Prior knowledge:
Layout (H helix, E strand, L loop, with lengths): L1 E9 L2 E7 L4 E5 L6 H11 L15 E8 L6 H8 L10 E8 L4 E5 L2 E3 L1 H11 E4 L3 H4 L6 H37 L3 H21 L5 H13 L1 H16 L4 H15 L4 H31 L4 H21 L3 H19 L1 H47 L6 E8 L12 E8 L7 E2 H4 L2 H18 L4 E5 L7 H14 L4 E5 L3 H5 L3 E10 L2 E8 L2 H13 L5 H24 L1
Helix pairs in contact: 5-13, 6-12, 7-11, 8-10, 9-10, 11-12, 13-15, 15-16, 18-19
Amino acid sequence: MIxxxxxxNLAVIEFISLSFDEGLHVFxxxxxxxxxxxxxxxxxxxxxxxxxxxxxxxxxxxxxxxMYDPPVDHPAWNWLKSREYPADCSESIIVRRELSxxxxxxxxxxxxxxxxxxxxxxxELMVELHGQHEHQALxxxxxxxxxxxxxxxxxxxxxxxxxxxxxxxxxxxxQTLDRVSKDDQQAIxxxxxxxxxxxxxxxxxxxxxxxxxxxxxxxxxxxxxxxxANAQGAYEALGGQKGALPQIHKAIKLIHDLIPYDEKNLxxxxxxxxxxxxxxxxxxxxxxxYSDGIDADPKSLDSIESRLEELRKLKRKYGVSVEDxxxxxxxxxxxxxxxxxxxxxxxxxxxxxxxxxxxxxxLGGQLRSHxxxxxxxxxxxxxxxxxxxxxxxxxxxxxxxxxxxSNQFGPHGMEIVEFLISTxxxxxxxxxxxxxxxxxxxxxxxxxxxxxxxxxxxxxxxFDEVDTGVSGRAAQAxxxxxxxxxxxxxxxxxxxxxxxxxxxxxxxxxxxxVENERTFTQVNELDQNGRVDELARxxxxxxxxxxxxxxxxxxxxxxxxxxxxxTLIK
Length: 570
């Protein structure tokens, strides 16, 4: 799915630009050359935490960019569209991240500004990254429930969703019951406060929109003298002895006398002026009545100011508007009602809680049944994968236990899930943390990743030294398993093992160089001869001989034969 990756000024990498075809890509090189930096760069593009310390010395920022080409039916496209990112299935998805020494992060998805959370969400749809120490998390039982639920598919997910919906009601009702049942003395004090606040509001009797009306009245009273004078002046200008209306009336009479001589032109003009006259006359009467109706009483202004101050006091204490104050008063009434009928409410919520617990218990039982079915299937599938990984006698058991009675219901169900394993015949299964070695944990994790890669739309699996702690046939089995995974998803692996590197479809050499007193890392894809030399070094260490090169060639030939068989099977 990932087709290109460029890294600039990250740690000892000055600049690299890599293009990837399908298959298994293995990154090899000496310890400390910077192999894991490539994986760290991917982690940053997936929303991982970064630091200014990762920026190459002497530069201001680090830049990482990747190009993905998911198929048109991949969920990443719907994710982009739902969040209004540019999304054209005929083009690529480009993700970019910059780390600055100022601490500022710049993230972009298809050129649009984004954030780390979005990078993480998008990345989880396309890339599965397994770090050097991630297999250690497998020894913690807290993660096992998530693995089992992911394997359960739609039936289990539907059952879990129904349980969690009811669990949310359970929590809400329980919290309400706890709140209503709290200490009597505290409840009495709270009730007194509520009554005081409610009385203060009710005594004022605020009305919605009242403050706006009062503000308008106040403004009118403050300027009443000017309003009266101007209104009366306007009336006199229109209807007074020297006003406009007598002159207009005179004009109407003069034109009327001329109509018999030119009716066609003068009659319409006469009607137009007469209509305007009547409108102006009506307006002058309204101005007269308006000026007569203006209240200039200072006592009225004082009364309005006093009322506005009462409303302002309430709004300062209980809300920004009268509507807010009244809503707060209503909430006080409800709280007081609850307090006054506290015993009845407690009994009511207790009954509701029992009903919800009964439903929750039934839904939890259904969820447990789905998990038990999925656990049996997953155990068998994991054991099959472990047989391929040189653990032929391993027994993988998924143990489902009840939660403690004191906390019967949990956010994810009524049970605790733990993975157990027995690696030796005759030994009972025990928790992974108590029995599995580092190499065994790596293989168990690889088995799980293999299973889930077949169930998901993940297009890229990344393994950072997952084969650490294994050797011999077990190492060969891990290499073969990675090659098998790479037939359904692109696989990146950082490895020190020749078996893994020999199985690669594309082998990359990571080397550290020093020029002009500066250190930088190079990443290059090896050709056939380069692969032989690098594998010979991995087999023998510093001393590379014709014999070790011969071993390397044999390793590559065996790997090619295995991959050809995979192609035939596919």
